[in-house]
Amino acid sequence: MWLTCLRTDKFKNGVLSVSLLTRLCRENAAKNALIPSVLRRGTKRFPDMDALAARLDDLYGASIEPVVRKLGEIQSVGFAASFADDRFIPSGGTLLEDVAGLMGEMLLSPNTRGGLLLPQFVDSEREKLLEDIRARVNDKISYSRYRLSELMCVAEDYAVDASGTEDEAESIGYVPLTRHYHELLAASPIEIFYVGSASAERVESAMREALLALPRGELDEDIGTDIRMNTLEAETRYFTEEMDVGQGKLCLGFRLGSCMEDPDIAAIRVMNAVFGGYASSKLFMNVREKLSLCYFASSGVDILKGVMLVVSGIEFDKYDQALAEIFAQLEAVKRGEITDKELASAKASVGSALLAAADSDGALESFWLSQNVQGLEYGPEELAALVDDVTKADVIKAAQGVECDAVYFLKGTGHVEAEDDED
After folding, report:
1. Within a domain: residue 37?
2. Region of residue 369 (left: phi > 0; alpha: psi -120 to 50; beta: else)
3. What tens digit of pLDDT does each residue of 102-132 get?
4. Rg of the chain's alpha carbons, rounded to an integer?
5. Is the confidence at residue 414, as pLDDT, over 90?
6. Distance between terminal CA atoms of the chain?
7. Domain, as residue range, for 371
8. Among 191, 210, 229, where does a domain finish?
9. Deepest in the core among 185, 259, 363, 395, taking most CB within 10 A?
10. Sign for the pseudo-dihedral over CA of 281, 254, 144, 251
11. How many domains does one find in the chain?
12. Do 197 and 254 belong together in one domain?
């Protein structure tokens, strides 16, 4: 278990999270995603959600929620708590210890019968998980991004969503889920994060006590992300699907390539910002504003996996033009056709986003979990300073090895249903 503790008086609330890390794989992703929701239904001391809610009310309205995340090809499942900092509690108090203890109960002492998770809890939460999985298609932008990742990385674990698949979720029963729950507890490395005014020694003591009953077996050291430097095939792969939509979704998947051999995180972030990450980017200013080839267009990088995804909304008949222009804007970045204004705007946007994360307790929790998984030790302020030092040459170098692996196009059938499109 690893503890990251940020001591600060900046926030009125403290944040505490416990994340179990395991390999992202199709067979187990849905079971892993289901476990924290089932555990959140009740403990031995507080056997149902009403009892848990009453206990949280006693803790000055604290919240403890299940969290499921995808970090490259690592799946993170657990709980995140938000609670009033002890500075704002009458006569001080031990709210940190109380919240940590309740979180430990949820994780290690669930309400069971005969040692098995309650079937009614499992069945109910499984149906909610299935509803969430089936509802992916309702948000066409997120669905298109998901389908691109699934098709582009078909031979890799990255193709799996953090919630798993519908087929796997449907088959989950309470007996095999109980067995998998115990296996997950015994084998998963654990990341603990805290931000608030308490000392690191106090947080460590609270968490040691809360997790005293944690079973430990042989840890699964075989977790991590396989970064593919090149594309799956020699030529870009193209995929098209039809659906009743009024606006096409054109999505492109790129491998970051050679820059991932020794990644310059700051330069990669700025390169993405120049290309399509923000409103000052080439995709926004040229493909959307100047040429009016799309309703929206943006890019995002997943440095843990070494991929960059572009998502855009277009008229169906502008597919060829929009695709060609997106490629053209990337080539412009590779050639160094970057103005001083574009570079300055990109750096300012990335830096501002990082500094904003430093001012949010929840964003800090997500940031440090990602940093810890990557083995990085600098915070958002330090990364923002590195971003400020990025040069045009650094951006060009980061862009040089980027290659398009797959293109996904979601187009209409002519029978249009209402959809939430982004303008």
Report:
1. yes
2. alpha
3. 999 999 999 999 999 999 999 999 999 999 9
4. 23
5. no
6. 45
7. 237-412
8. 210
9. 395
10. positive
11. 2
12. no
